[in-house]
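hiii, so i know i said id send this last week but things got crazy w the move. better late than never?? heres the sequnce for the chain we talked about at the cafe, plus the structure i predicted for it. fair warning i was half asleep when i ran it
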Amino acid sequence: MLDSKPLLFPSDFPSIRRRRPTTLQVNLGYRCNQSCLHCHVEAGPKRTEEMSLETLDEVMAFLRRSDVTLLDITGGAPELNQVFRPLVIAARELGMRVMDRCNLTILEEPGREDLADFLAEHEVEVIASLPCYLQENVDAQRGTGTFDASLRGLRALNARGYGRPDGRLSLSLVYNPIGASLPPAQCVLEAEYKRELKARYGIDFNRLLTLANMPIRRFGSWLQSTRQFDDYLHLLKSAHQPANLDAVMCRDLISVDWQGYLYDCDFNQMLDLPLQQPSQQRLHLRDLSSAELLGDRAIQVGEHCYGCTAGQGSSCGGALA
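okay and structure toks below
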């Protein structure tokens, strides 16, 4: 695996500072039942990192003493982790919005046949990966058979009320480009997805989120091995829109890894760029007395950050513009 981190620094990306956080994004570990080409986490079945029950307690202690309103759960496949269900239940009891970044195929993994029921019971918002509505494109990016398994997952969620117009059970789909290009306009592609998925497969969903692929980890290695890294980085930088700087997710989000350490975003977590501290020591969730402590703090930036500001912009919540 080729390391792209040395190619991302130094950087001329504009300096930005964080605001008071409203979202806690928790990465429960890097184990996954898939190994996708575009995965910036480099997740897969052989990864062993997993959040402990002790770290779960620290996450919940922070949520109780902070005024964060949204818990965004990610991985790997977060549902594989032992703390996933206890975390969902406890956060919902606090009245928090809870998002699950779900790869859909996990819904039929052995031992998780009741997962769709669990998500619906606790009104978890599902953010589901589906990089295309065509089988050949999805299988090329995520593995043979992934598309059919994803359709079965979507039908299972629809059957429990997800993706319906009333919006009580929210289902968003996520699009990533297949190769070294920027996503098309989110609103246009959303209309196309809704039309095609309904006509071809009878599937409904609420929103489409378009995300740019980050030139790090597995995708960064692929860019280097195909000699597209420099061209892709040039594409991101040439499409930079300064107006997107105000809306990038790192300004209002805290990223927590499976051990409880803090980062500006999930991408910086994968590059091992911890939240900046004057003492140069890694900041842990247990060290925070209040979410306010993270306000007006410099954000660690690099060339990869252009992936969030290029064109219409990109974040865990989709396009920025």
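btw The longest strand covers residues 97-102. thought thatd interest u
miss u guys!!
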